[in-house]
Amino acid sequence: MEFKSKKKWTWWVILFWLLIWEIGARLLNQEILLVSPFVVFQRLFQLLKDSHNWFLIGASMVRVMSGFLLAMILGVLLAYLAYRWNWFKTLMNPVFYTVKSIPVASFVILILVWVKANALAPVISFLVGLPIFYDQILKALESQNPSLEEMSIVFHISKKKKFRYLTLAQILPYLETACSLAIGFCWKAGMAAEVIGLPDGAIGSQLHEAKVFLDTNSLFAWTLLVIILSSLMDRMVQIGIHKMIKEVLRS
Predict the structure, then answer these.
(1) pLDDT of 39-62, one tens digit each?
(2) Same domain, 105 and 212
(3) pLDDT of 198-217, one tens digit each?
(4) Which residue ranges traverse the bilayer (predicted)?
């Protein structure tokens, strides 16, 4: 019942902001600056009817999600190593501080010197997502209750059960938070990389083209599509992690 109520309010909030958008577009009355949401949705449906655009969508999804998945795997591994060895944590601190401090645009330009345009979005998505996974998983490992560890030793709990019911159960909620944060940042950074790098067959290239030709309808439509894709990927990852949590906690 609570879930249905929350879902209902979510739709009302979306409708409210769509109404504000429509009012703003009517008051401004300049489509080159702000397009009506009805026009944007109409243009979005036109884009989705073109089979070539599905190739662009798939290519961009593969680029961004490959960087996201690599960031998750390596972030978890590095966090574990930092948890085990304090010298490794000290060694990695300036690296992650630097990565988090450099603006995405600077990263894109620097990396573009080293890699081809088609590989730019995965690399940038990876670099943006990596510190998020590292910080969250390290926080999860460091927040483990030492008394539970001692209890597992006293009651001779096997390493497999200890990992499942103590370590993994502690990490998964933090992993869910990391995924929710990282996936949005990866999409934003990935699209920025595509807009600057202009790879063949990419959403970012279409955004750049729409901007050059002042095609505001397409610019808003492609942007809305990116928001939808990011939300869908976020939802799918959350569902997967929730299933993992239920499986881990199941006796």
Answers:
(1) 999 999 999 999 999 999 999 999
(2) yes
(3) 888 899 999 999 999 989 99
(4) 54-83, 219-237
Classify residue 156 as left (phi > 0), alpha (psi -120 to 50) or beta: left
CA distance 178 to 136: 6
DSSP 8-class letter at 166: I
Same domain? For 7 and 48 the reply is no
CA distances to 111, 115, 192, 236 from 134, in Å: 21, 24, 23, 21
Please indicate, yes or no, whether residues 22 and 74 belong to a single structural domain of this protein: no
The C-alpha atoms of residue 141 and residue 119 are separated, in whole angstroms, by: 33
Residue 23 shares a structural domain with residue 90: no
pLDDT recorded at residue 1: 47
| Same-domain pairing of 3 and 92 | no
Same domain, 20 and 73: no
132 with 199, same domain: the answer is yes
Say if residue 7 is in the same domain as residue 53: no
Number of residues written out for the chain: 251
Residue 56: per-residue pLDDT: 93
Total tally of structural domains belonging to the chain: 2
- How many other CB atoms sit within 10 Å of the CB of residue 223? 16
**pLDDT averaged over every residue in the chain:** 87
CATH number of the domain at 167, please: 1.10.3720.10
Note the helical H segments in the chain: 2-28, 37-49, 51-84, 86-101, 104-112, 117-142, 146-154, 159-162, 169-197, 203-212, 216-249
Res 31: pLDDT: 83
198: alpha, beta or left, given left = phi > 0 and alpha = psi -120 to 50?
Answer: left
